[in-house]
Amino acid sequence: MSKRKFELTLDYAKKMDQEDELKSFRDRFYVKEGQIFMDGNSLGLCSKDAENSLLNMLNVWKKEAINIWGTEDGKYLNYSEYLAGKIAPLLNADANEIAVVGSTTMNVHQAISTFYKPTKDRYKILVDDLNFPTDRYAVDSQIRLKGLKVEDALKVVKSKDGVMIDEDTVIDAMTDDVALVLLPSVLYRSSQLLDMKKITNAAKERGIYIGWDLCHSIGAISHDFKDIDPDFAIWCNYKYLSGGPGATAGLFINKKHFNKHAGLAGWFGNNDKTQFQLNHEFDQDKTAKGWQTGTPNLLSMAPIEGTLNMYKEAGMDKIRKKSLQITAYLMYLIDEKLSKYGFRVGNPREDEKRGGHVCLIHDDAYRINSALKNNGVIPDFREPNVIRLAPIALYTSYEDVYKLIEITEKIMENKEYENFTNERSVVV
């Protein structure tokens, strides 16, 4: 972990904001006055850029009607490829290896159905026990579709402490009967960033396909897929990338697999030259486009364009630099001001081992989370005792972080959290 020196005063936080090279982007987001938003790792704030790109899409639709598909040199007919070109720098991947398509869960289904071809000797899928559950639901479903039993074909690597994943334990579990590995790049609870290169290399050495769930890393962390070289990856575009609720998701297919048949075929995966010939034989495009299925959801894709334009302006290196700096500052304030109330940091401290959010641990986390919301702070809670705090590089200020800690101190001093129940609400 790099050595950073911080100070405890509000003036210091304001000084950090003045020196922030990304500070101008905050004004381009709809930051609600009187609210401290710390939940951008779950659903990013709406930006004026995203709003404008969506309104532009609506205007094109109003003006062009069905001719929207041919306007602007076919931009909207090939909107996935257009957006892929803007996402590619975030992954250091080729644009033709990326499709903006479907949802996270459907893309897991797409990838598993493409790469999982169980044989008598190699038939297991290796997962961890800490990943977001939708990945597991999809994997279990795909195993059953192959006529196998989940208890036989699923291999689960257990966390030693229920918080972190040990990379060596994962690698040790890559036995000869494993056909495919699916893991998260960043754990959604603890913010642990796995050593993707080390694990991917181990899988390739053993002839095992490996894919990554980037939902909690894309837009917060710079990935280098030319170096890591995974077989596939999936992600959502509504967290750090602020594409809007349920925004169309992303899928990466390594170009070395362009000769494979898409597990789930659909007409928008057809080669452009023959797509509108409407033949009943699928002429799969030999890029990631071939893994598209139905007609693209343009209105769920348009806001992503606006955010990606900002990412290009800001630069991923600067975004990651601020993310590391502001989360380090948050951890410093937790240590200095909140530890006496029983709080602790539950995520890795090292820059190279943590994602874009901080995991705040407390035995009474749920009621404290409710009290924070009642005081204008928007974090989120994850079982059993985690308050997730995500200062987002493009729109969270250091003063926000300072005031968050100040409010938490007040809640603990006044025991305000005792006014709230431990009974879980539907969305937390």
TrEMBL record:
Alphabetical GO biological process terms: anthranilate metabolic process; L-kynurenine catabolic process; L-tryptophan catabolic process to kynurenine; NAD+ biosynthetic process; quinolinate biosynthetic process
EC number: 3.7.1.3
Protein keywords: Hydrolase, Pyridine nucleotide biosynthesis, Pyridoxal phosphate
Coiled-coil spans in chain: none
The UniProt record lists the keyword Glycosyltransferase: no
Reactions listed under catalytic activity: L-kynurenine + H2O = anthranilate + L-alanine + H(+); 3-hydroxy-L-kynurenine + H2O = 3-hydroxyanthranilate + L-alanine + H(+)
GO molecular function list: kynureninase activity; pyridoxal phosphate binding
Pathway(s) it belongs to: Amino-acid degradation; L-kynurenine degradation; L-alanine and anthranilate from L-kynurenine: step 1/1; Cofactor biosynthesis; NAD(+) biosynthesis; quinolinate from L-kynurenine: step 2/3
GO cellular component, one term: cytoplasm
Residues bearing PTM N6-(pyridoxal phosphate)lysine: 239
Residue numbers binding pyridoxal 5'-phosphate: 104-105, 132-135, 213, 216, 238, 267, 295
This protein's record includes keyword Transmembrane helix: no
Entry-linked Pfam families: KYNU_C
Cofactors that this protein relies on: pyridoxal 5'-phosphate
Similarity comment: Belongs to the kynureninase family.
Listed HAMAP family: Kynureninase
Biological role stated in the UniProt entry: Catalyzes the cleavage of L-kynurenine (L-Kyn) and L-3-hydroxykynurenine (L-3OHKyn) into anthranilic acid (AA) and 3-hydroxyanthranilic acid (3-OHAA), respectively.
NCBIfam families, per database record: kynureninase
Self-association state and partner proteins as the record states: Homodimer.
Protein name: Kynureninase
